[in-house]
User: What shape does this take?
Amino acid sequence: MKKTYKCKLIQKKELCSGIYDFTVEAREIAETAEIGQFLHIQCGGNTFLRRPISICDTGDTTVRFAFQVKGEGTKELARHKVGDIIDIMGPLGHGFDVRPGEDVVVIGGGIGVFPLLKIARKTDSKVFLGFRTKDLVTMEGEFRAASDHVVICTDDGSYGYNGFAVAAMGEYLTEHRPQLICCCGPTPMLKVVKQIAEHMDIPCQLSLEQRMGCGIGACLTCVCETKNEGMAKYQQVCTCGPVFDSKEVVL
Assistant: This one.
């Protein structure tokens, strides 16, 4: 059983409307967290179930996570103030497998960009980030500090590349072949990235978004379809993921 920790909120920012960036004191989590793992957070108020939120960054004694207000749970979480104590379970799940200096294409969409920051810092990364519109662009400066190749894409063309991040990545891949593609974002993005990577025979890792109940494998809320030696089966995203090899997962 994973431990829960009472973590003090030491920094809170609203990155854009409805998207919050929290940093908490959590030495035990920071010391063991891997890129792509997640936290299971007690949001407070009248919400019972915890909410799974990806780890964005870690320091020596701190853990940073960002989230979008979508329902009652995240609404309650967003009401916390600096100095409040938040009940957090983690780190949980299976993260990205990347090596320092590896040539990696990093692609994310919306709130899926947050867990990709540490990959960009650790590897020789080429970054493609997609947002619906200019007002929702977040963490651009941090990604540019981590990588010398960052393409910001907006669906409506209001900022940066006019179009989807997968289109910008596709253009890049016509002349470059990375060692690995890492992706986190909405399911339609994951599907296209998976198709491109498999068509070009480029190793690819996908971080899935999935509803979760317990977060520790005790329930079957978060199962997804995967392939094992050609046979379809179901695995729990909370324990076997959220990061899967693109050839393993069925989307």
About this structure: The radius of gyration is 18 Å. The mean pLDDT is 93. The first helix runs from residue 27 to 32.
